[in-house]
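Lab notebook: predicted structure, single chain.

Context: the supervisor wants predicted structures on file for every construct in the current expression panel, including those that have not yet been purified. This is the next one on the list. No modifications to the sequence; it matches the entry in the shared construct table.
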Amino acid sequence: MTSNPHLPHDKLLDLLLDVVCVVDKEGRFLSVSAASERVFGYRPEEMIGRTAFEMMHPDDRAVSLAFVKRINSGKPSADHENRYIHKDGHIVHIMWSAQWLEAEQVRVGVARDITARKRAEAMQAALYAISHAAHSADDLQTLYQRVHEVIGQLLPVENFFVALYDAADDQLSFPYYVDQFAPPPAPMPLGSSTFCAEVIRSGEALLLTPETAEQRLATLGAVAGKHPLDWLGVPLIAGTATIGALVLQSYCGTARYNEQNKALLQFASSQVADAIERKRTHARLEHLAQHDQLTELPNRALFLDRLRSSLQRAQRDSLRLAVLYLDMDNFKHINDTFGHTTGDHLLREVAHRLRQCVRESDTVGRLGGDEFAILLDSIGKQEDAILVAEKILLALSDPYHLEGETLMSAPSLGIAVYPEHGQSDLHLVRHADEAMYAAKRSGGKRYIVVEAPAK
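Prediction complete. Output recorded below exactly as produced.
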């Protein structure tokens, strides 16, 4: 195979993948090689007479003008990057090598399309940013917002949402939802006829165009209405369970999601799912550390923590609160006679009845064995605590029907009120405890209010 040494230079230039061009001092194209159509979308004859600045991304014009001035002053450059608007509207990243020819009063430039490289760099940066956010975000809402921002640097994401599925309640909820035209939907069952529900049911990503979306809607039996033109959803998978989905959708008709976009969103979904699972595990461990495993009531540490917080509010705002301390009469006898399993059932039932006797704002805690404490927050007067104690006395004295046995037990209660009976959490608990033992010594099944002020 022999080369043709007589091939014209312009033909040789047209074989190059890079664009070779000549422009005048104002940046007007005088000559352009054939690669211009591949890189910019314009044939050479369409570019002749136009200026480079007309085609350039508006945000890059000022910097590029300074670059051109340096070239024109006799300083060649081989590494300037800027962006152009392709004929079909997408952005093209260009790296320029350029030199000014003083005698001819023209600038010769070679434009290399580095869009693929820039996209790969942006993708790598996005993957790192998403991974970093998943491990550093203080809360899930911050994570969802950060993922939205990062993906938005690469894709059209005016409409993005996170859906989470609670299998126990069969509820699909939307903790993060950004949409141009619609507010967040109300929670719905997984059986609903939506693309999102289908992603969670199948555990597989779903990429839809306007044509395939219409077909899929018909399959789902969805009601006709306003639906996104382009739709991309990927499942959130934790272990073997699908716990939700990440979704992008576009109404504009110009956005086109593809397999590469799906891969990015799947990476984001794996990071988000891991973060959700970590948060849930942390919450479970925190709950176990602060709650009694038998009754699910706050344990001593959490009860005292809430009491201290309530005392700070009471001291700041001149409020009152009360601590009720109780244990169950005859509990040891019941445990010894019927066994520890029956005793556990009794304690669980006591916890259930106690919850029914107080407000949502109050705290019922199990301090150990058959000893319970109740924090009555922000009461008006001591008599309010006495009314609750009477209610508890009646509720806990009713017969207990457990495992085929009918058992009788009743509480002994002590009541301490802030500020009359103590200024600190430990003083109030100790005085209420002492009053409870006084009630037990008096025969049980009664309450006693602390009489002596705290020393």
